[in-house]
Amino acid sequence: MQFARTRTRKANESTIPMINVVFLLLIFFLMTAQITPPEPFEVTPPEASVEAPATGQLVLHVSAEGEMAFGDAHGEEDVLAALGDFVEEDELMLRADRGVPADLIASLLPKLAQAGVRHLNLVSTAR
Fold it and tell me: Which of 76, 108, 111, 119 is deepest in the core (most CB within 10 A)?
């Protein structure tokens, strides 16, 4: 009775190069991924038909109750103080809840302009 011979590995067959490639891919994806901080509160943006999405790195959040947050600043006074050193060339995204009254947004716009905001994009969801 003859048994099949077990195949032995050749000396040059190694899994180390494959492990190296997988490790380099892991590092690549970790370095190129954008990790965004969590939102300060739940915001449901209004619906609109838009051609291009809002762009910008800086986001001002406005809740349905009128609460504001920008980075670590919470409350209107703190937010406007944080925007005091805003660079005029930067774009600010306004992520306001659909339940925010229009007069609150209208009263906020001159204050943002006074703080140095010249480019404001309203975040909305597509219909």
Answer: 108
Separation CA 29–CA 77 (nearest Å): 39
Residue 18 lies in a domain: no
Within a domain: 35: no
Q: What's the rounded Cα separation, in Å, for the pair 67 and 123?
A: 17
**Tens-digit pLDDT profile for residues 62-91:** 998 889 999 888 998 998 888 877 777 788
In-domain check, residue 19: no
Token pair in block for residue 15: 């899994």
The CATH number that applies at residue 83 is 3.30.420.270
Tokens of 45: 């943006």
- Could you tell me the pTM of the whole model? 0.66
The DSSP call for residue 26 is H
CB 124 within 8 A of CB 54: yes
